[in-house]
Amino acid sequence: MIKRLIDALKAEDPGEIRIVTHDFPDADALSSAFALQYILQSAGLTAEINYGGLIDRSGTEKLVSIHKIPAKPSPDGGVFPPDDLLIFVDCQGLGTNVTASGGRIFACIDHHPTYQEKPDYVYEQIEQTGACATLLTEAIREMGLPLPTDIATSLLYGLQMDTKNFTREVQDRDIVAFRTLHAAADQEKLNYLEMSKLEIDDLKAFGSAIEHMEVFADVGLTMVPFECPDGLIGALADFMLGLDELGIAVVFSLRESSIKLSVRTILPYVDAGEYTHNALQGIGSGGGHKMFAGGFIPKSSYEGIPKEELMEWLKNIFMKKYGNYLMEDSQ
Ligand SMILES: [Mn+2]
């Protein structure tokens, strides 16, 4: 399949080929982009890896530095020259988590469900695996390419992170990919990355999340009243879901001009992506996978609500939507 992408790229005369990840890229996004760059390079094509925002987690930063992943912030704030071909990896063109305009939306390799309008890709591979890294592992095999240690280690770390060490959204294909990657990866480096996921500063956010936590039935909600990186909000939600009493964890982070949020669930009748998407209908945007999702509410949606009432407002929105699930489930 990836061969079709290569053929399609070779038929073009592009300005630049850009591999674009979601904003604030995580390990899965960067390792997948790194692997795709390697595949294209092996076919004689040069591509640059670009992202919006910044790399904001220590584990991800280390992943990039020890493997020298040549990822760069998108030029001109994500406004690409018209001749550039954009390949979206671990995200989708027109997605709300991607800052990219201009250029030509050319291809997409992703494992998220599609919520927004789908652009007309020349090449499209959107399949719901545990990680995008699995799709790229399969692509390397399909091309019959050797699997370099740095690529294997990166992809395996991405796969581990996205599946929460193979406990979340895992498909058979992820296990097959694991076997391939495990044989070629550097275990020492993986251990090092595994041990570098938190920074001392992150503990402030954990403290605040615990302090502000409210529990209703089996739903835990909390708000961190200061800016947190995306990945950290997710880590907080993972941490909360570890509580025996909770089936759903929702974490809000109050930023300068928006609220970012993460949702986690282990309840079979609640799809986190759908739940988040529905709850934010009309006030923001969100979506994701069955067990984990994220979202965003712009300030314009809560302007006028005093800061101390925000949590109550958010709680009502999310508990009301949760109530709908309970009603449907009992019918
Ligand atoms: Mn991913």
Structure, explained:
The chain has 331 residues and is of the alpha/beta class. It has two domains: 2-194, inorganic pyrophosphatase (n-terminal core) (Alpha-Beta Complex), CATH 3.90.1640.10; 202-330, Diaminopimelate Epimerase, Chain A, domain 1 (Roll). 41% of the residues lie in helices and 22% in strands. The protein is built from eleven helices and twelve strands. It has a six-stranded parallel sheet with strand order 3-2-1-4-5-6. The model has no long low-confidence stretch (mean pLDDT 95).
Summarize it.
With 331 residues, the chain is of the alpha/beta class.
* Alpha plus pi helix count: 11
Run of helices and strands: HEHEHEEEEHHHHHEEHEEHEEH
Indicate the CATH class of the largest domain.
Alpha Beta
The overall pLDDT average reads 95
Quote the CATH topology of the largest domain.
Answer: inorganic pyrophosphatase (n-terminal core)
Which ligands, by name, code or SMILES, are bound?
Answer: manganese (II) ion
Task: Based on the model shown, name its key terms.
331 residues, 2 domains, Diaminopimelate Epimerase, Chain A, domain 1, six-stranded mixed beta sheet, 11 helices, alpha/beta, six-stranded parallel beta sheet, binds manganese (II) ion, inorganic pyrophosphatase (n-terminal core)
Write the SSE topology.
Elements: H1 2-10, E1 17-20, H2 27-42, E2 47-51, H3 58-67, E3 71-73, E4 79-89, E5 101-110, E6 123-126, H4 132-142, H5 149-162, H6 172-184, H7 187-194, H8 202-211, E7 214-216, E8 219-224, H9 230-241, E9 248-254, E10 258-265, H10 272-279, E11 285-288, E12 292-298, H11 307-330
Parallel strand pairs: 1-2, 1-4, 2-3, 4-5, 5-6, 8-9
Antiparallel strand pairs: 7-8, 9-10, 10-12, 11-12
The structure holds manganese (II) ion (MN).
